[in-house]
Amino acid sequence: MTESIPIPTPKNRPITDQDAREISRIEELSYDLKVSETMTGSVKCVTPDQTLPAVSCSIQHKLGVPTHAACFDLNAACSGFVYALDTACAMLSSGRYRHALVIGVEKLSSIVNWKDRTTCVLFGDGAGAAVVGISHEPGVGLLGTKLGAYGDSVDLLCIPRGGSSNPPSAESVAAGDHFLQMKGKEVFKIAVRAMEEAARDILEQQHLRADQITLVIPHQANLRIIEAISQYLELPMERFYVNVERYGNTSSASIPIALDEARRAGRIKRGDITLFVAFGAGLTYGAALIRW
């Protein structure tokens, strides 16, 4: 069982170790594990500062985290925070780690084609994080997760060239093949179905009803997808936290940003059950249930 605690990410200021200590209320916090979810991959023009090494190593250095902390990046696109949270919790459950700093961070403005109005107006830059630790209270923390992927649909949302199978060339750069490309209608259909099924699966797994969920924090892809999930789960939109109109789609950063805002707004209280649900390139999807 694990407990996730958000770290504030004020505008124009990076996350600091002091932020983590303040929010987690752990006087002597020692990070054993750092998981940074970002759209890394092996392509050239992606959101990390550079393809190699992992951006989590740079963050470790800037935060002054001890060198004994394990650091790695995880590539699951918009589903990344849910994937990274599940990964961190599994590693903590092994007993070999005490705390993890899970980060969702993207600079999508660097990989969109500003001449392509089907993508450039949708995506934004952002970062959010959570300190994760062991919960010793029965029934509190991460209740369960549901992860999956439709690997047969990788071409629906991708950066076509720049990786080892299609190295960059003058022709590919001129053609704009190093920018994010998306087939919106097809992605929408699969996203709604996958997020609904993941949510229902995790509820069934935990023997819970949808109306027992206090708050849903979905990936902030677009309002139409969130409204469709609300309709299929038969939950009012009032139970969904939505901020896409302010930041756009910030990929793996969207859930931790919304989590922090919801907590600060008083929408998460002790005993509440929160559902995370996400969908992204891959095509990946995931859901997680947390009781606070």
In short:
This protein is 29% helix and 23% strand. The chain is α/β, with parallel strands linked by helices. Strands 1-5-4-2-3 form a 5-stranded mixed β-sheet, sandwiched between helices. A 4-stranded mixed β-sheet has the order 6-11-10-9, with helices on both faces.
Describe it for me?
With 292 residues, this protein is α/β, with parallel strands linked by helices. It has two domains: 137 residues, Peroxisomal Thiolase, Chain A, domain 1 (3-Layer(aba) Sandwich); 149 residues, Peroxisomal Thiolase, Chain A, domain 1. 29% of the residues lie in helices and 23% in strands. It has a five-stranded mixed β-sheet with strand order 1-5-4-2-3, with helices on both faces. A four-stranded mixed β-sheet has the order 6-11-10-9, with helices on both faces. Strands 7-8 form a two-stranded antiparallel ribbon. α2 links the parallel β2 and β3. α5 runs parallel beside α6. The longest helix is centred in the middle third of the chain and has 22 residues. The protein is globular, with a radius of gyration of 18 Å. The chain starts with a strand and ends with a strand. The relative contact order is 0.19. The N terminus is likely disordered.
> Gyration radius, to the nearest Å?
18 Å
Please give the order of strands in the largest beta sheet. 1-5-4-2-3
Number of domains: 2
Which assembly state applies to the chains in this document?
A: single chain
Which percent bin holds the helix content?
25-40%
The structural class is alpha/beta
Number of helices: 8
Strand content: 15-25%
CATH topology descriptor of the largest domain: Peroxisomal Thiolase, Chain A, domain 1
CATH class categorisation of the largest domain? Alpha Beta
List SSEs in N-to-C order: EHEHEHEEEEHEHEHHHEE
